[in-house]
């Protein structure tokens, strides 16, 4: 009986060990790859699947788990040469996720190896993009476009390498000049900006002179046309006035002479200028008799 009890206990322990070795759990944040003698046989809870929980395997099978969440990989700062031969210190990082655990295991095995591959790919992309544009554009003007280009190149390289990884985002945290060349480069940039400002001011002044000259020519033409039109209208008015005077003079010469004398009196006396004339002057011929005639 004692031997039977010991045997039964051994069977229970063996059964418990078998249960523990034949089951495993996968959390919602993980994907798992089941290996049989080192070869992958099936994937559990990969991207797009919902298989978290308890699972069974054969006792001689192994389970390797991977993080299915977005993973951030910070690269070490490095010096890169820009398109104008200036060196820049660039600090960047990327986010990725494992979308194919089987392919990931077959190509890189571990995340440490994957990060080494990603670091090499990132360095090549940054070197190619930064080396194609001037340093001042990297520092001040085109950071968003620069990151988009790097992300496109990294994503394409990862897809070609077939690592089972999807690149989510690439960011450049810092892109600065080394301290020993920063002041020299900034001085050159200031000089270039000053030359550009002087060129723009000169072009603006030249354009202003052209506009003023054009306005002066136009105003001269307008004034000349206006004077010519005024002279024409004045000539037509004088001609019409003389015609009316001539018609009036022909109808009653005495009245016409009287009317013109009254106009002369009005103009002369209105100015308030003293007039010295002899009493028998022709100017006052209408004052010499009571009838108001010139005789």
From TrEMBL:
GO terms for molecular function: peptidase activity. Its main location: membrane. It is found in: Membrane. It is a single-pass membrane protein. One of its GO terms (biological process) is proteolysis. SMART domains: PHB (SM00244). It comes from the Bacteria. The keyword Metal-binding does not apply. Keywords: Hydrolase, Membrane, Protease, Transmembrane, Transmembrane helix. Residues 21-189 form the Band domain. InterPro entries: Band_7 (IPR001107), Band_7/SPFH_dom_sf (IPR036013), HflC (IPR010200). One of its GO terms (cellular component) is membrane. HflC and HflK could regulate a protease. Belongs to the band 7/mec-2 family. HflC subfamily. This is Protein HflC.
């Amino acid at each position: 009986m004692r031997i039977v009890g010991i045997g039964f206990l051994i069977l229970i322990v063996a059964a418990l060990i078998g249960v523990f070795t034949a089951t495993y759990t996968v959390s919602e944040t993980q994907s798992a790859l089941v290996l049989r003698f080192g070869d992958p046989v099936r994937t559990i809870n990969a991207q797009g699947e919902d298989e978290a929980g308890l699972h069974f395997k054969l006792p001689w099978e192994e389970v390797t788990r991977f993080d299915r969440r977005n993973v951030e990989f910070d690269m070490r700062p490095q010096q890169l040469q820009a398109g104008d031969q200036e060196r820049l210190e660039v600090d960047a990082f990327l986010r990725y996720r494992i979308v194919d655990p089987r392919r990931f295991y077959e190509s890189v095995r571990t995340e440490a190896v994957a990060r080494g591959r990603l670091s090499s790919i990132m360095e090549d992309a940054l070197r190619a993009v930064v080396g194609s544009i001037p340093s001042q554009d990297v520092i001040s003007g085109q950071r968003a476009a620069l990151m988009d280009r790097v992300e496109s190149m990294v994503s394409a390289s990862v897809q070609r390498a077939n690592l089972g990884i999807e690149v989510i985002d690439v960011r450049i945290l810092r892109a600065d000049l080394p301290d020993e060349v920063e002041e020299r480069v900034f001085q050159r940039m200031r000089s270039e900006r000053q030359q550009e400002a002087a060129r723009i001011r000169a072009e603006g002044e030249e354009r202003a002179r052209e506009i003023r000259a054009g306005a002066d020519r136009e105003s001269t033409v307008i004034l000349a046309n206006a004077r010519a039109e005024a002279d024409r209208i004045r000539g037509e008015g004088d001609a019409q006035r003389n015609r009316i005077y001539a018609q009036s003079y022909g109808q009653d010469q005495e009245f016409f002479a009287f009317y013109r004398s009254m106009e002369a009196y009005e103009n002369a006396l209105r100015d308030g200028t003293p007039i010295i004339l002899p009493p028998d002057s022709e100017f006052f011929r209408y004052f010499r008799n009571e009838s108001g005639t010139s005789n």
